[in-house]
């Protein structure tokens, strides 16, 4: 059985089916259905568009917004103002409505996404507050002024004979646009990046994802779509008021629909939107409307308690259960990865992927250099120059300078609190030093965001493994391959990830979630993620901590084979046996300063090292 | 420019509305800070209590003391039940926000169904009674509210600071595992705190009904202001909450006096936005 070529993520059959469904729905008004049916479907499509647009930001990236009413409302009022006061043709206002919301979204994001703590419930409250601020402004300025805006005199574009059919077709188009974008995003690099951001934003950044700009894209797309939907809805309601437009209904419904349908799949919110709209429509009028509202509140509670993954999550789990065992043994992806038909690689396919030689993991030039007799003659290619790092007056690093030579294993040791992990965070770009330079081939990376370090070829592991919890092992490794130095396309990144997993011996666990791995395997998963970018230098932060002696032996062998393949390693470790066995040179940190460096055997004999690191009893 | 008397009157009414915000926000602040539960349904509890007070005192003419004595235990039980739900399904912080959002919608629908969406007003001798101090009118009902709020807030502060229950709760909030290792039963304390929080909500509901006309739509109107005060004051910090509430109340009242009443929401929501963006560590 052939391995699927590394090509486009979507099988063409699905695209054909989607286009066919769209055309059939677009032709529906020709059959002259009753008008109420068209307006019911209009509402379904409106909510599909709104819920899907919400999910692109909140479901994918995990930034839960209660402010969708703001984006929707800006669209409503942009169109309402332009068609009445500006006397513009209605269709021309829709792109402007989208643009106005997009700008609002990007503006909010540009401020809010710089504040690291503003996630989760705080982001939700913030966006809700923005909605109320906008509502107050609209109410007190000529945008609305209080009495509301009438659009009854506005001429309806004639896409179909009746206004109801025309609105139906427009809503269908907007919903299809939203779904197409959500679908496209889910299987693209952007989608992968957003899912990673939702799981662990710092790690995503360190793996090379420019998180800030990706979040801006997500909020811009999400807000823009909501704005277009809002502009369209202004014509549907014909009488626009602040209290209706900026009400709590829009955020409540989109959250409910998306949570119910499943927020990490493109089709989830649409499922939720259909169910909720049908439920509400069934309860129109008088007391029943209230019962319907109460029922929606109850549904939200029940979904959170009993179906946290939503309908789409249940469908995904059901499909995974019923797929034949053989088809899953290869590299099955979780549903946020490539589409399921892309993934299955059978046992034969797995065998067909030739076990890559270790050398193939690295650029030929680097590999060649490792065959040279020694590395001491090499010019330093990574240099830390006088790095200072202070946390509110506490000096974690006090003028640390060190050089890493190409192809060597440089050991970095020191007692707890000596600044080792801080130094790793500075070199990998997660922390910006108070002063000093991190020079890679002469380029200073110290003040650049972490993803730039990853792109330049610096990879790191975490002392306590931090896998993306909701991505499969394979996807965890594919992410850095997509965004680190190599910048691979998704399909190529998966190939690369399989190689890296094979190298660390985890290929048979590719389809599993990281939670199912033991500590030893998670540490190797960290290694595979670092290797996936073909790094020029790997920072190994206490990879051996917590492992059994037997596991340590296999890890030492693994580190050695990584070096033998030509990758430079900065090896941070407490285990002196491993340090002496592996390192070419050794640097000792104490209280944020380098107190010794040189050949490992010499360094460990120096009196101040023995005193600071090994203690007085050591000999 | 309005006269000094008008401004002084505004500041005073700002202090009173701030006191109400603090009483409404206390339960939210305690549950959020110490239990990591964001209870939006607290607003629904406040208004449900308000409507029950309106029904029992205003319509049926029961004794106010009796109603308060009945309402507090009733809402205590409701708070315990809610916490049981969160514990039973191990709902996280964000899940609690969504669940209580759903619950708020349900209670709002119930209120609308029983009492309709129209504004209801409870006539008591207190509602119009005020004392003139120099040029300024001091309404009696609001003064009682201010005193009750002060008493409750100080009691909550002392309870958290000086009793075993308070210390154990704060320890659990900081590190539940270590606290449990030292023998703190978080589960029981959480039930107690959630019940007390809901009871303070019922107390706030009494003043919501007595002080002004009441309608279901006000539920979401007060949400932003109170959450702003809760966050500004520091989660789980009763004294900070009181200070923040009164500050916001005065700022709102002055905005109303100097511009138009419809601009008032801008103050609290802008404040909330600024706090979140500039001082997210407070939460």
Any idea what the radius of gyration of chain B is?
19 Å
Shape of chain B: globular
Strand order, sheet with most strands of chain B: 1-2
CA radius of gyration of chain A = 28 Å
Largest sheet of chain B: 2 strands, antiparallel
- In terms of structural class, how would the helical and strand content of chain B be classed? mainly alpha
CATH architecture of chain B: Orthogonal Bundle
Structural class of chain A: alpha/beta
Greatest contact between two chains: A-B, 42 and 40 residues
How does the major sheet of chain A shape up? 6 strands, mixed
Low-confidence stretches of chain B: none
The end-to-end span of chain B amounts to 38 Å
Distance between the termini of chain A: 61 Å
Number of helices of chain A: 26
Which percent range describes the beta-strand content of chain A? 5-15%
Overall helicity of chain B: over 70%
Question: How many structural domains can be distinguished in the coordinates of chain B?
Answer: 1
